[in-house]
Amino acid sequence: MSESDPHALFEAWLAEAKASEPNDPTAMTLATVGAHGQPSARMVLLKGHDARGFVFYTNQQSRKAGELVDPARAALLFHWKSLRRQVRVEGPVSLVSAEEADAYFASRARDSQLGAWASDQSRPLDSRATFEARFDAVKARYEGAPVPRPPHWGGYRVAVERIEFWQDRAHRLHERHVFTRSGDGWTEGLLYP
């Protein structure tokens, strides 16, 4: 690895993953910590990346959203098995702008837009039939009209304070390259495998 800009290196690795991963190369594990120190992890999809950070979208009343408030920090993990690589990201979390959330929401498939209205994400559900009935009601409500972004749905950006690129090597002699935010730049280094 010789790339000195971690965002450019990530873009190169993501492009390779998009060419080789059989399913969801933008899937990433999102790790959070709840109010009582209980860690929690789940898969989400990367929907944007630039020098400001990594963006994903969700219901802002979900468990994950509640765990992104205090502390407003998260860790991400990309694992590309076909490339034998992973990328770990750590940093503070902030909401994306309403304009960014609106633009992304408008790009979603209509049924995904409707599902955002129908789902009380992370809350108990008595039966699948209840959810399907709610979906059908929302579908009827917006029949023939654009589906607006729900007020409780938006995006989060994980700003990079630390990012590690891991490359599998023979005999578990892996290569680990880490970048740590230092002012406006980066401190680079290697880690033992």
What would you note in describing this structure?
There is one protein chain. The protein has 193 residues and is an alpha+beta fold. It has a domain at 6-102 and 155-191: Electron Transport, Fmn-binding Protein, Chain A (Pnp Oxidase, Chain A, Roll), CATH 2.30.110. Helix content is 27%, strand content 36%. It has five helices and ten strands. Strands 1, 2, 3, 4, 5, 6, 7, 8, 9 and 10 form a ten-stranded antiparallel sheet that branches. Helix 4 (110-118) crosses helix 5. The longest helix is centred in the N-terminal third of the chain and has 15 residues, at 6-20. The radius of gyration is 19 Å and the shape is elongated. The two termini are 15 Å apart.
Helices and strands, in order, run as HEEEEHEEHHHEEEE
Secondary-structure-derived class: alpha+beta
Give the overall form. Answer: elongated
CATH class bucket of the domain at 6-102 and 155-191: Mainly Beta
Tally of contiguous helical segments: 5
Helix coverage percent: 25-40%
Return the CATH architecture of the domain at 6-102 and 155-191: Roll
Mean pLDDT across all residues, rounded? 94
Ranges where pLDDT stays below 50 over 5 or more residues in a row are none
Q: N-to-C terminal Cα separation, in Å? A: 15 Å
**Alpha-carbon Rg, integer:** 19 Å
Q: What's the number of extended β-strand segments? A: 10
**CATH level 4 superfamily of the domain at 6-102 and 155-191:** Electron Transport, Fmn-binding Protein, Chain A
Give the strand content. 35-45%
Largest sheet: 10 strands, antiparallel
The CATH topology of the domain at 6-102 and 155-191 is Pnp Oxidase, Chain A
